[in-house]
Automatic annotation (TrEMBL):
UniProt catalytic activity: 2 6,7-dimethyl-8-(1-D-ribityl)lumazine + H(+) = 5-amino-6-(D-ribitylamino)uracil + riboflavin
Species name: Salinibacillus kushneri
This protein's name: Riboflavin synthase
Ranges where the Lumazine-binding domain occurs: 1-96, 97-193
One Pfam short name: Lum_binding
């Protein structure tokens, strides 16, 4: 379980892509102070398991289903990634409940600056759009954010300056894809009440 509060922006030090699998070595010295083999770390919102580590980097493996469902497939050596360790039971809870199980990807259609905020307009698939709620929570590339607008298939989020400068979202723009995890409660309700939640049209 995660909170969506990004702890560090890491760098892909090495990446090996097979036909249906990926192995990544990620440089991230700040979050490795108390890491152990088998720990869970969110990488761009995807829960991955630490297989090996040193004082400055750690390795994770990505399985076929994760490759198909997320944007991890487009990462290359040198790519920056959002990182968060799993939430400790006695830790401060600052975001919202994030499982690290990405529901799909969206595409940034445009972004614009308004006062001290950066607004992003993200196109999402219909099956994710129906799970969005105005002023509800959503995780974008693992970052806990609030839904500020929903119109047809376009989701609007707003980033404060700290989030722009301390996550990879600040460097993303039109045409880039992002991992999306919908609110956990909305998914449970949708699953229990199939075909009863209409697609959100605004």
């Amino acid at each position: 379980m995660f909170t969506g509060i990004i702890e560090e922006v890491g760098t892909i030090k090495d990446i090996q892509k097979g036909y249906q699998e990926i192995a990544m070595m990620i440089e991230a010295p700040e979050i490795l102070q108390d890491v152990s083999t088998g720990d869970s770390i969110s990488v761009n919102g995807v829960c991955l398991t630490v297989t090996t580590y040193s004082g400055r980097d750690f390795q994770v493996d990505v399985m076929p289903e994760t490759i198909k469902a997320t944007s991890l497939r487009i990462l290359e050596k040198g790519s920056k990634v959002n990182l968060e360790r799993s939430m400790p039971a006695n830790g401060r809870f600052g975001g919202h409940f994030v499982s690290g199980h990405v529901d799909g990807v969206g595409t940034i259609k445009r972004k614009k600056s308004i006062a001290n905020a950066m607004y992003y307009y993200i196109e999402v698939p219909d099956e994710l759009n129906k799970l969005m709620m105005l002023k509800g929570s959503v995780a974008i590339d693992g970052t806990s954010l609030t839904v500020f607008g929903i119109e047809d298939s376009i989701l609007t989020i707003s980033l404060i300056p700290h989030t722009v400068s301390h996550t990879i979202l600040g460097e993303k723009g039109q045409g880039d894809i992002v991992n999306i995890e919908c609110d956990m409660l909305a998914k449970y309700v949708s699953n229990m009440l199939p075909n009863q939640i209409p697609t959100n049209k605004g």
